[in-house]
Design brief:
Layout: E1 3-4, H1 7-29, E2 34-40, H2 44-59, E3 63-69, H3 75-87, E4 93-96, H4 106-112, H5 124-132, H6 141-157, E5 174-178, H7 185-194, E6 198-202, H8 209-214, E7 218-221, E8 239-242, E9 246-250, E10 255-259, H9 264-267, E11 273-274, H10 281-302
Parallel strand pairs: 1-11, 2-3, 2-4, 5-6, 5-7, 7-8, 8-11
Antiparallel strand pairs: 9-10
Helix pairs in contact: 1-10, 2-10, 6-7, 6-10
Bound molecules: NADP nicotinamide-adenine-dinucleotide phosphate.
């Protein structure tokens, strides 16, 4: 029987760890660790994501401070907002909810967040430190969630691995990452490499993708192409992590559903372990955001 990797359960475990750290930090700081959330515009999906993140923060003892700005806000006002949050000693981490309205370039504003308050781990300083293998800085949330899912799956499948410091080795394993974005594919590949996997990166120009994927002991699909990865792409020894989330219209159900990059039904019996969509990587992204928030607060206390 293949292992269905339960992202909701593993996210609960991460949140419990975060709650313990947040409670210790609250004593040391004299206040709860605080995540500032900046939301620009009226996009309903963004509002719903922010609401979820704030609810999850509250559950683990992290305070939130939300700043809502109108869709037509000027670059100057957004800059000023981020600068004030950077300078506010009561704020430990800052999240700028993406996407921004078209007149605001997200890359520019992500760089304005202080690397020491970069809850999403997307500042180029932190991405650069990841490239160098520095584990003391925060890392992008979704990729860290992917790695934690693989760690947890291996803990079940190969219990001789030691998870005492969460640095288990993937030596001897071939990993294939489909997708090379800065948000997901590249940081996932770097962290797989850091854990000693032999890593191949595939993208839209990769010929014979199914043959490349078939070689994988660990296959991470992050290409945003619903159901691209099917039975022809996997082997019985493969751990499959599906990052993809695309809203597609389900004809028979007459409603939109979330589709992963992996055709779960046709592959699940043919692999060693697999994540579902939803309920796999998605819950981990929020959990790792909370984990980054307490990490930033801890680092601030130590400095
Ligand atoms: P992205 O920036 O659009 O990058 C997609 C990557 O996939 C690109 O590198 C692209 O190759 C590659 N690709 C596209 N079509 C392909 C094909 N047919 N074969 C092989 N590679 C292909 O997307 P992203 O931000 O990385 O996100 C990827 C997926 O993950 C999306 O569905 C997104 O919604 C989802 N996501 C989920 C979470 C979560 O929390 N669950 C978080 C973030 C993202 P090129 O570089 O050659 O164009």
């Amino acid at each position: 029987m293949p292992l269905i990797i339960d992202g909701k359960e593993i996210a609960k475990k991460v949140k419990l760890e975060v709650a313990n750290k947040a409670s210790q930090l609250s004593v040391k700081l004299g206040r709860a660790p605080c995540l500032a959330v900046v939301l620009v515009g009226d996009d309903p999906a963004s509002h719903s994501y922010v609401k979820n993140k704030e609810r999850a923060a509250k559950e683990v003892g992290i305070a939130t401070k939300q700043t809502n700005l109108p869709a037509n806000v000027t670059a100057e006002v957004l800059e000023k907002t981020l600068t004030e949050l950077n300078n506010n000693l009561e704020i430990d981490a800052i999240l700028l909810q993406l996407p921004l309205p078209k007149h605001l370039k997200s890359d520019y504003f992500l760089e304005l967040i202080s690397p020491s308050k970069d809850a999403d781990g997307l500042h180029s300083f932190n991405q650069g430190e990841l490239l160098k293998g520095n584990k003391s800085v925060v890392r992008p949330c979704t990729p860290s969630g992917v790695i934690r899912l693989i760690d947890e799956a291996l803990e079940i499948l190969e219990p001789n691995h030691s998870l005492t410091n969460r640095d288990i080795s993937y030596a001897g394993k071939t990993a294939v990452v489909v997708g090379r974005s800065v948000l997901v594919g590249k940081p996932v590949a770097l962290q797989l490499l850091e854990r000693d996997a032999t890593v191949f990166m595939a993208h839209s120009k990769t010929p014979n993708l199914s043959a490349v994927c078939q070689t994988a002991d660990i296959l991470v699909a992050a290409c945003g192409q619903p159901n691209l990865i099917n039975a022809e792409f996997v082997n019985p020894n493969c751990i499959v992590i599906d990052v993809g989330t695309t809203r597609v219209f389900h004809e028979s159900e007459k409603r939109y559903v979330l589709a992963g990059d992996v055709d779960f039904e046709s592959t699940k019996e043919l692999v060693r372990a697999i994540t579902p969509v939803p309920g796999g990587v998605g819950p981990m992204t929020v959990a790792m955001l909370l984990s980054n928030t307490v990490k930033l607060a801890e680092v601030k206390l130590q400095s």
